[in-house]
């Protein structure tokens, strides 16, 4: 993982990622581990945008995780390749490599490699529809010359093997590169008092008093599961309780990160809440005056990292193959 490599290697990877795609970079000059990690990120990026990861070629990871929405989607849920309705709202992926739990309602999925199998192979509901099609996936990717070269560069110890284990490891490497740390609220937290307006600063104080117990830490989530939504529970989706079968876990869902939240509507696991103001009001016990809601929304809007939403290094790879 990028954040665990030695400091010189991390610097080398960051240097490569920071260069424009059009620049000539001699990856052979990098230390072997940095070169391999760079290749994995490049491979994972191509896979993330490739419809060949779905049975009929119609759905890529990026179909539901859109960069301009913070790698969320912008609608309640997305139907799978068979037309079956999606079960839950698509979460954003900013700093997803830091998450300790990775789905709305299953605390056992704790690695990005394991999470990638849920949309690809899952049947409840069917999303990408690749269950039982592992050999077909390897065949499709293997006939692409760029993929063959990238898999060899990314997984030399596996002799460039193409299959679910290496596909998910490459996807995870790219997803760990989805780092968002330059929202106005970040600059404010680093000491730039002018980074956010006075209204948002008042909202920050209100946030600390009313929201930060669950939306905690640098990514505004404790990665735990809570039952916070008002209204009657949906018997078709009891969250963590559907996995554990424990009464105390009924209607508990993971606290989402609030990074780029203003561009990630609709909200909650069911995508039933259209605006930030409505989302605030949907929390149990949250009773704020309208002026308090306004300043809290102003602060939440300051969590939008515009550079992350437009970074070409995270976008569809329409340039030449990144392999040596």
Keywords:
globular, 38% helix, mainly alpha, 324 residues, 13 helices, disordered N terminus
Topology:
Elements: H1 7-18, H2 32-48, H3 61-64, H4 112-121, H5 134-142, H6 145-154, H7 164-176, H8 184-189, H9 198-210, E1 225-226, H10 240-244, E2 253-254, H11 276-282, H12 290-301, H13 306-310
Antiparallel strand pairs: 1-2
Structure characterization notes:
By secondary structure, the chain is mostly helical. 38% of the residues lie in helices and 1% in strands. The protein has a two-stranded antiparallel sheet with strand order 1-2. The longest helix has 17 residues, at 32-48. It is globular and about 60 Å long. The two termini are 21 Å apart. Mean pLDDT is 92; it is low at 1-25.
Question: Helices and strands, in N-to-C order?
Answer: HHHHHHHHHEHEHHH
State the end-to-end distance: 21 Å
Cα shape: globular
* Mean pLDDT level: 92
Major beta sheet, specifics?
A: 2 strands, antiparallel
Q: Please give the share of residues in helix.
A: 25-40%
């Amino acid at each position: 993982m990028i954040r665990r490599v030695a400091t010189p290697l991390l610097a080398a990877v960051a240097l490569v990622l920071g260069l424009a795609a059009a620049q000539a970079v001699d990856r052979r000059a990098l230390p072997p581990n940095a070169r391999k990690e760079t290749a994995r990120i490049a491979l994972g990026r191509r896979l993330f945008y490739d419809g060949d990861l779905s049975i009929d070629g119609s759905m890529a990871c990026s179909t539901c995780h859109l960069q301009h929405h913070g790698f969320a989607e912008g609608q309640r849920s997305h139907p799978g390749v068979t037309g079956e309705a999606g079960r839950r709202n698509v979460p954003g992926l900013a700093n997803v490599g830091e998450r300790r739990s990775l789905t709305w309602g299953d605390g056992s999925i704790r690695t990005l490699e394991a999470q990638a199998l849920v949309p690809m192979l899952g049947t409840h509901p069917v999303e990408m529809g690749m269950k039982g099609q592992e050999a077909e996936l390897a065949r499709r990717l293997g006939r692409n010359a760029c993929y063959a070269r990238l898999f060899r560069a990314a997984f030399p110890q596996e002799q460039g093997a193409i299959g679910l284990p290496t596909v998910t490891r490459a996807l995870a490497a790219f997803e760990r590169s989805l780092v968002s740390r330059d929202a106005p609220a970040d600059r404010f937290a680093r000491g730039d008092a002018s980074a956010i307006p006075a209204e948002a600063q008042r909202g920050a104080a209100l946030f600390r008093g009313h929201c930060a117990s669950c939306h905690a830490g640098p990514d505004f989530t404790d990665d735990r599961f809570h039952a916070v939504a008002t209204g009657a529970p949906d018997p078709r989706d009891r969250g963590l309780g559907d996995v554990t079968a424990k009464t105390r876990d009924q209607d508990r869902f993971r606290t989402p990160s609030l990074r780029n939240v203003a561009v990630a509507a609709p909200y909650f696991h069911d995508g039933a809440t259209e605006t930030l103001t409505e989302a605030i009001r949907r929390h149990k016990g949250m009773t704020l005056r309208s002026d308090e809601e306004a300043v809290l929304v102003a602060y939440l809007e300051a969590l939008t990292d515009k550079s992350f939403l437009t970074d070409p290094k995270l976008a569809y790879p329409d340039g030449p193959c990144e392999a040596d």
